Amino acid sequence: MNKKLFSALFVAALCFSCTQKETAVAPPEPVYPIPQPKQVAWQQMETYAFIHFGLNTFNDKEWGYGDSDPRTFNPVKLNCEQWAQTLKKAGMKGVILSAKHHDGFCLWPFEGTEYSVKNSPWRDGKGDLVKELSDACRKYGLKMGIYLSPWDRNRADYGTPSYVEYYHAQWMDLMTHYGPLFEVWFDGANGGDGWYGGAKEKRTIDRKTYYDLPGIFAALDSLQPQAVIFSDGGPGCRWTGNERGIASETNWSFLRKGVVYPGYPNADELHTGHADGDMWVASECDVSIRPGWFYHPEEDNQVKSVEQLVDIYYKSVGRNATLLLNFPVDRDGLIHPTDSACAVRFHQEIERQLSKDLLAGIVPAVSDERGKPYTAEALTDGKYDTYWATTDSVSSAVVEFKLPAVTSADCLMLQEYIPLGQRVQSFSVECLVDGKWQPVDTGGEVTTTIGYKRLIRFKRLLISGLRIRLEKARGPLCLNNMALYDTQAVVAIQDCGD
Ligand code: FUL
């Protein structure tokens, strides 16, 4: 390049960056607590699967006592690729396997115990289910997670320090041999009666201290830094307080430090989160596609319908939580065809209902705007990382959309830009119907928090405008996306029984 051309380009670049400086304003300050980037990535997964499988499957149990014979574990057609393909088709982004449930039976050949797949007829005792599933996940692009029950009703030393060493060693093994884990699950149900090496007694432990969870969490942080740690109280994500897959309408992604521990008795607090919490611990909704977590043939006709699953989706993902949907793998070692059909059709139905965003590309009028690049355009540009924000002193605003034509609508989607915190405490929605603004009928669903995502279903209306009043927030507003749908625009997917 000749010198003249170089200096001309240099001056042009300088001028461009000066203009940028003049027009771009500073981003809003975060409002704490805020999520770690891995917690944002985890929430963006939205739906992922649970698999409960083990000796319970073959012995018709939910909570095995710890004495079922390992020789009864024989899933002759087991095929993790069938699981992965099904889950992929059902829109799941990952899968968490019960590597060991309360009965203590290990689905991988852990060297610290004889109570594992190595003493079963499956693959002549040479199988490793954790490996087979992690290979299938890699092949089909699913993330892998592990559930490892702290409570172990098989171990003779449960309740003593040596069991804690054993439990830590199990985690070390799982952390170091099966690739990256996106989530690790610490169940709150623990302690009580069990076989315990033949003692057959009740053992209680101090849930707060016995397992030395901080020690395991530290190892996880260094060996699996991307893994989000689930327990009743986090630190990565928290139980939503029920096993029905339903999050609270008011759902804060915060907990107060040092309050909640595994087995915490106050489920209501877990349900709403602590509005004044100082830790980011978003809620996860776990629910089984059947009544039980494990497979029972008599539940073959009790698989949740597409309609029930869709409702669960709106009440979990649509209320600032993730959905962890459980599949009880059957005695052949496969996801049962009914479960598979219902889950796939559920996903197709959600895709159908939320396929056409009626606000795409429409720039709303806003009562306040921070300045470039935090302008109203960002709300409907379909990008996650661009957002509209208000000026520092403003924590309420009105966002108004004019629609190009009268259209029917019945569902609104709102997203706060959570990397900067969760802020909105209250909002309301109005529609322009026959030239008059009227509040939408949400059927009683309260419009308080938004968080990562809120889906508000309302009575279907023919509308020409939409107004969202963001009434109260913990700081200036930062929202990255808004969308509007007519979920009944196209004929619904048939239910799985049809
Ligand atoms: C509970 C357990 O006791 C159930 O068996 C199941 O594993 C569920 C996901 O968590 O606490």
Could you list some keywords that capture this structure?
globular; Jelly Rolls; alpha/beta; 2 domains; 8-stranded parallel beta barrel; 7-stranded antiparallel beta sheet; TIM Barrel; binds beta-L-fucopyranose; 498 residues
Description:
The structure is a single chain. By secondary structure, this protein is of the alpha/beta class. The chain is built from ten helices and 19 strands. Strands 1-2-3-4-7-8-11-12 form an eight-stranded parallel β-barrel, surrounded by five helices. Strands 13, 14, 15, 16, 17, 18 and 19 form a seven-stranded antiparallel β-sheet that branches. A two-stranded antiparallel ribbon has the order 5-6. Helix 4 packs across helix 5. The longest helix is centred in the first third of the chain and has 21 residues.
